[in-house]
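[job 0412] stage=fold_complex status=start
inputs:
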Amino acid sequence: MRKTTIHDVAEKAGVSIATVSKALNNSPVVTPKTKKRVIDAAQSLNYVPNRISKQLKSGQTDTISFYTISIAAPYFANLADVMAREIGKRGYSFNIFLFSDRQHLINNILGNSMDGLIGFVDLIDQEIIQMLKDYRVKTVFIDRAIEAETIGSVIFDSYQKGKEMTQFLIASGHRKIAFVKSFDGVYDSDERLRGHLDALTEAGIEIDQSLIIQGNFIQNISYIETRNFLKRKQNDLPTAIFAGNDLSAIGVIQAIQESGRSVPGDISVVGFDDMEHLQYFKPGLTTIYNPVNLQGELVVDHLIKLIEGKTQGQTIELPGKLIVRESSRSII
Amino acid sequence: MRKTTIHDVAEKAGVSIATVSKALNNSPVVTPKTKKRVIDAAQSLNYVPNRISKQLKSGQTDTISFYTISIAAPYFANLADVMAREIGKRGYSFNIFLFSDRQHLINNILGNSMDGLIGFVDLIDQEIIQMLKDYRVKTVFIDRAIEAETIGSVIFDSYQKGKEMTQFLIASGHRKIAFVKSFDGVYDSDERLRGHLDALTEAGIEIDQSLIIQGNFIQNISYIETRNFLKRKQNDLPTAIFAGNDLSAIGVIQAIQESGRSVPGDISVVGFDDMEHLQYFKPGLTTIYNPVNLQGELVVDHLIKLIEGKTQGQTIELPGKLIVRESSRSII
DNA sequence: CTGAAAGCGCTTACAG
DNA sequence: CTGAAAGCGCTTACAG
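[job 0412] stage=fold_complex status=done
writing structure:
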């Protein structure tokens, strides 16, 4: 079956295609009578305007793209879900394209595939950021702040929250605290670690590089690396481990338990993110709540305002909250 | 900055736009010399063809849409991730739109938003399925089989696998087995339950409706409902619980442990899906491995073959495998 | 108020 | 081999 076009509707209603277009787009000039005739014809023919043609005329795609390395990990999945819902509600399409090669991204930007981009500064080099500015591609970053006329950010202050977490541990009597980080250069990890180290320094605790574990923010790797760490440091264990995200905290806890030790009896473990699906994980994780739902909504809202020219790029900071559960304890 | 169009390239290369188009699309008619001139001009101007215009001419959108109720739950997130990766690799765009109202879906189908659709039969009514057939919208379903010239399916035989799981439990000496289902009408849940019940019947075990728990395939709800179930049946507990998916198995295990009982000491618990991020969940879950990666790849491959007219719709069945871990035990 | 015409940026059959 | 022209399905400034 051929899809109905504006010509079919025009013919059926006995008017020109221009009139059909106006009637269907609520132009005030068309007579109620004509309008009704057009709408009836359109309905009886199951007419839906061709999206592509509208786009070509308007130059708009009504599409928002999310450029990310993955949507499988819980944080990304949650965020993508919230954004997809919000974007759909606002009448836009939601496109996901995963990090691969540079040219792919450039083609998407220059090829007019989207009205707005949601991305991570970490995945985009300077030259492309300049390109986004030059071509005024509306963009919202979600890992760290970039601000320009057409670029905004909705971010979480990982440094400050990382610092608060370590301050909390110190206040609970811990002085030997390990930290599980991701790769160097991963902004959230770097920032949380920086906050952690600053908190230690401010409390007069000397920094010990051997207490930094690289778990890549992945459960599996954190598990393995913590297992090695526990063997290596068996006579000199920390009393607490600050895992840079919840996923690694799980790996850390598994490794500690498997070594015959208890959490928090022998070692306190804290995470970061408060992932919803860990709700019933035992022991309940002391962590920092990162409001993913709020983030998703703010990102979409800010981006659509940029697209519609209602605002300039801004930097929006998300609140975060320390949540104390059973995986950590005071040793004072 | 204005984006470069084919006219800019034509001017710079000193040829017509027709020639530019041909040169850039590797038409064999154009002279190597002309071709080089065009390509150089295009490169120096950072030219990327406007996607929308190409689409309007070709009638193709090079876009594949995934229509689902959510991408937050791990299974969906994994599947979406694999599909996004595969779709990107094959040169298509990946669009996600979440289930909302009926008209939204219709607009997407008739409005020419996509070349192919990936969806769930459960989310689409008969009338719309007929519409997909009429307009020859290439579609691949992933929950249950529909086969037509332009419609295929890549499915998991939940009935058979559900049956096998219960047969395994019976072979381990269990005769009183509870089942945690989702809503009636959710195909996977219905099928797994049907397999479970058939296995019981074939083994000569009478069916006891009070052993069916509705956990909605959600961890939280399964936890609460199992808690209630354990209270209600405290003097008449089953020796095993078959949770229709891994997520509910987690909830079930939490509830059992919280009641002071052990898994599998007091009650064996088995799940379904073998979700990757439960890798280190304790006790390791006996479950059925549902090859999500394979499914994602097969779905995309079949859909693109349909789009490119290389095949008719087919029904592809995914293999599944029973994986025995610590959450279940033999009581013989 | 309605309609003919131009144009969005491409591709392609056709003429030269 | 190259280019002028038509056309994909819409919207909109303009004329009537």
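[job 0412] summary: The longest helix of chain B spans residues 74-89.
[job 0412] exit 0
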